[in-house]
Amino acid sequence: MNLAEISIKRPIFITCVVILMMILGVISYKKMPVDQFPDVTFPIVFAEILYPGASPVDVERQVSKIVEDELSSLPGLETVSSYNYDSVAIIIVKFRLGVDIKESEQQVRNRIQNVRNKLPKDIEEPLIRRFDPADQPIVSIAVNSNLDPASLYDVAYEQVKPMLERVQDVGLVRLVGGQKKEIQVIVDKNKLQDHRLSMNQVSKKIEDTSRDIPIGKFEGQSDETILRAVGEFSELSQIEDVAVNFFGSDRPIKISDIATVREGLEKPKRFSSINGENALFLQVFKQSGANTVAVADRLKQQVGNVNAMLKDRGIDAQVILVRDASVPIRLNVLDVQESIFIGIILCVVVVFFFLGSARSTFITGLALPNSLLGGFIIMYAMGFSINIMTLIALSLAVGLLIDDAIVVRENIFRHLEMGKKPMDAALDGTKEVALAVIATTMVVMAVFGPIAFVPGIVGQFFKQFGLTVVFTMMISLFDAFTVAPMLSAYMATGNEHHRGQGFIDRMLSAFDRFQTWLEDIYESVLKWTIRYRKTVLISAVVIFLGSMFLGKFISKTFLPASDLGEFSVTVEKPAGTSLEGTLRFTRKVESLLKAMPEVSLVTVTVGSNSYESNKADLFIQLVPAKERKGLSTTKIKSIVREKLEPLKSEAIIAVTDVDISGGGQKPLNLYVVGDNLEELATFALALQKRMAQIPGLVDVDTNFRSGNPEYHVVFDRDKSEALGVSTVAAGAELRNRTEGAVPAIYRKDGIDYAISV
């Protein structure tokens, strides 16, 4: 007994199966995560190691080279490279495709821990993570207030940030900008010299007297008591009373004798503002696999709760939603959903006109919701998301899904016209075309199925595209062999194509005459092509070759430019520029942008994620499209480039999209490899000038930068040995006097503040 026979003889069973499939399809659709692109695994691991105060050369020699040597023997490794900046090393480990990236990440973590004792003691804990294009802020929030910087930072970090972290599926909340309060021990170098003390001694003494030490516990006959030595500072006067050394043998030299202890602000690493007003930014990341749109909706609701909380507590601060990364996802998804909906309507209308029967249209049209909803079940089970690729696949499949049902339905109707009973016509008609329907479906699956197995990163993007078409075609084949014959057996009549005198009947009759006219024309064209076979073949070849030739004049890109109403501007001043210097220049750029009537919001962040003080990022949000006088985002970016042209003599300025990686990456990258850095730099700069002359290329840049200006302190080894002073101890002393040290923590009202010497 085949599927068609089961569906005809057991209609209730098949109806229950189809209804259950549609219900599960709706549930699966609701539960599937919504994102812009599929979840793609890149076999890349980043290691970020901070070495405060170190130059790029020191970072490369003392950190990157040691770590690279250790990682070079990892299994499945393809390349290891590093980028060395002031105070930070970024090491990129690329593995071969197919490697378990989670296990590789753990191996990288273990290898770096193995060489931790070879790295400088002043480095901070290495940050190791996988590269994930979805690991970007889905929401950017600004905290704006008239409070002093220290109070604003505490409000953002201690009150706003925890409320955002409690939102379901939020993975990380990162604070950008601001200055936290710290306890500063300002040492008088003259008094330090008079008492023959060093900065290392001062830092060490504060460290040794600033911690609670668990002693143990005392057990009695019926109870036990935990013992703890209390050493944490609770008052600034306690820091002032720390004895650094003893003068002679009896008089202690306290911190207050050589230094001033006060409350201050940490050294700024980044500046941030919104529309010219100082603000703190909170970047919110979602958990892996979470629904971007749903998380963004929860965060927007939580922003209102945070503002209500601040108002209830009498805190003069406001939380503002700056950027919602779910907006472009919503627009793209809605656009494709609209295309699918229009495609379904047009498909049903076309089928209605050509079949000429509402009953036949209903029977065949059911293949669309059945196949789409059934496909969602398999997609959900496979861990797919609702994204651009899967929705494009569904919109493409809409026209294919109904084909099988049309073929089956038309053949069943032919058997009805032969005088057979509906059940016999449904069974015989389905059996007669079963092989052709299966073959047609398998051909479509054979075309789209292999797309899912394309190797490389591109293949991961198209995997869900190809399999989505295959899944929906499988369900459409099931529908053609079950629903179509079952409904035909119980709903079909021999006179359903009979025309009445109503408006719709007259419209269908007119379409029949039009179709007959088309058939006559087609017959004439077919006779002509058979008579002039050579002419037709030669014309086809010429048209084909001409199309291939014209194809090279069509612009090509992975994704077309979108009009989302937002973009970014990156600024890079010459190496060695301070944060203040970069901020002053960025204000000029900001003022030009704010003067444009199409711009509604400008946010500024001075200082990069790698703590480069000469770099700045500006995020620009435009007014709604209807208020821009017909100007698209692409056109406004061109206008911005023209306005910023006079400033390019002072800095490198680029106008970019907010891309998938969140870093404003260039769409075209050319890698130049060589052994000699000087020759490589000369060639790269010459190549940059040549490429800038190519029409269509803008903001051509190279990542080669000259190093920051620096001074070298060269010790006289003979004198240092004679005085018993090691170069390491002298270097550490100079570092403490220049960069400072953080030997301890001061806790007040449950908040930890650094003690900076």
TrEMBL record:
The chain crosses the membrane at residues 12-29, 339-355, 388-412, 433-453, 465-490, 536-554. Pfam families: ACR_tran. Keywords: Membrane, Transmembrane, Transmembrane helix. GO terms for cellular component: plasma membrane. The keyword Ribonucleoprotein does not apply. It comes from the Bacteria. InterPro entries: AcrB_DN_DC_subdom, Acrflvin-R. GO terms for molecular function: xenobiotic transmembrane transporter activity. This is NolG efflux transporter.
